[in-house]
Amino acid sequence: MLKRRQPLLQRFFILFILCSIIASPESATLLPSPDATALLGFQSKADLRNNLRFSQNASFHFCDWQGVTCYEQKVVRLILEHLDLGGIFAPNTLSHLDQLRVLSLQNNSLAGPIPDLSGLINLKSLFLDHNFFTGSFPPSILSLHRIRTLDLSYNNITGPIPSSLASLDRLYYLRLDWNRFNGTVPPLNQSSLKTFSISGNNLTGAIPVTQALLRFGFSSFSWNPGLCGEIIHKECHPRPHFFGPTAAVVAPPPAAVLGQSVEVHGVELAQPSANKHKRTAVIIGFSAGVFVLIGSLLCFVMAVRKEKDKKQSTAVIESDDGATTAQVAAVIQMEQETELEEKVKRVQGMQVAKSGNLIFCAGEAQLYTLDQLMRASAELLGRGTIGTTYKAVLDNRLIVTVKRLDAGKLASTTKETFEQHMESVGGLRHPNLVPLRAYFQAKEERLLVYDYQPNGSLLSLIHAVEHGRRIRIGF
User: Fold this and answer.
1) Which residue has the higher pLDDT, 343 or 445?
2) What pLDDT is recorded for position 275?
3) Which of 32, 116, 181, 370 could form a cystine bridge with 358, CB 3.0-4.6 A?
4) 468: region left, alpha or beta (phi > 0 left; psi from -120 to 50 alpha)
5) What range defines the domain where residue 374 resides?
6) Would you say 34 and 96 are in contact if contact means Cβ atoms under 8 Å apart?
7) What is the DSSP string of 80-135?
8) Any signal peptide, and if so, which residues (predicted)?
9) How many CA atoms within 13 Å lie on the side-chain side of 199?
């Protein structure tokens, strides 16, 4: 009996040991990390020349791999530059690195379309430039609301540049140059945008005049023959020339030289005789004599008239001296009156500036006048406790936000106090603060002018619902 029980006890003991090993926390480390799986999946499709040093056998030490930076066993930076990667950027690989902040694959030979990157919810910098990517602008990038740096330059991306790029309000660096983009330029107006280039594409139409795009020069838009507008100093609809193209003057056909053609239309031409030559010479000489005689008579008549004009001009000069003196006096009087009118206008202008004028904050360019602002088309954006906010589109296509303050709420605030507050607020600059560009006050009317932000209100973002669930906001 004892001999039979010993094998059974041994088997139970072995099963107990195996179960304890499997159930232990350390056994979880034997499974490869999802980040390591994502990196290996990317390598299998992108590294056709075996230049990456990723290894399946060393997947538990993926944080030590080439170009990988981790924080608490999660990949936060992936820099794979100048490695001659010649495959494709496969979907469902790097997009699973949900803690990734920086991704750089620049200066490789990756081809094909850019995959869905919406899983990179914490991505702040994306460098895919100097590759051979094709297809259209990846729409998944528009969902990366924390993105600050985006470089897709020097690829073969086609199609339009989406206007939704204006919703990426943290965008600091944007380069889309030297691709094959077509269509129009989107009205980007991020106050944080400091680096921008769309040169070397096939873009057409007028460049929108926004506060953000006005900061960049001609080089940011060059090599787009179809672009026009105020920013690049190119008229969009050139006027036709006042004078049309002149018609070419058709020279008459050369006359046939006498004697060179023996027959013209079957009629034989005879050679001129010597008598005809003599008769022609006499006629020419007589005509020349008549012309000389007529010319002499005309010269004599003109000399007589000139002498009479001299005598009359002496009397006219004496009489004109008085008239000239009177004209000079009249001109001096007109200049004095004009100068007086200008002084009056200056005084009136100073009074207008004191009573009510559009005042731009320190360092701001005066891109529009009060008259343009008043003539702009307005759209109601919302109402608050101290005023109403409008979206104003000026005649030069510049879009601004105008906040009209409630006169009743600010009745106790003096003009001097209001101006001091506006000068203080106008000097504030921060990436998360919409800058005050200008303000206006006259009697009971007070307006504040800001950059237009196309992303909606904070209330709409907090309470927005998409597909039955609230939208996740990354702060």
Assistant:
1) 445
2) 57
3) 370
4) left
5) 360-470
6) yes
7) --SS---SB--TTSGGG-TT--EEE--SS--EEE----TT-TT--EEE--SSEEES
8) 1-23
9) 12
What total of structural domains would you count in the chain?
Answer: 2
Q: Which residues lie below 8 Å from residue 410, measured CB to CB, with a gap of 6+?
A: 386, 418, 446
**What is residue 166's DSSP assignment?**
G
Domain contains 328: no
Mean pLDDT across the chain, nearest whole number? Answer: 77
Residue count of the chain: 475
Q: Last residue of a domain, which of 228, 262, 278?
A: 228
Assess if residue 445 is contained within a domain: yes
pLDDT at 475 over 70: no
Q: Are strands 445-451 and 436-442 parallel, antiparallel or unpaired?
A: antiparallel
Predicted TM-score (pTM) of the model is 0.51
Query: Does residue 224 contact residue 179 with C-beta atoms inside 8 Å?
Result: no
CATH number of the domain encompassing residue 373: 3.30.200.20
User: Which of 152-156, 228-232, 300-304, 418-422 is least confident?
Assistant: 300-304
Q: What is the pLDDT of residues 37-76, one digit of tens each?
A: 999 999 999 999 899 988 887 777 889 999 999 999 999 9
> Is the confidence at residue 136, as pLDDT, over 60?
yes
| Cβ 185 vs Cβ 230: under 8 Å | no
CB atoms within 10 A of CB 178: 20
Alpha carbon distance 471, 475 (integer Å)? 13
pLDDT in tens, 241-277: 444 444 444 444 444 433 443 333 443 444 444 555 5
Confidence at residue 271, expressed as pLDDT on a 0 to 100 scale:
46
Res 317: pLDDT = 43
Q: Cβ distance 144 to 138 under 8 Å?
A: no
Phi, psi of 295 (to 5 degrees): -60, -40
Helix (H) / strand (E) element for 377: namely strand 377-383
| SS3 assignment, position 35 | helix
Q: Which two tokens stand for residue 228?
A: 């026009």
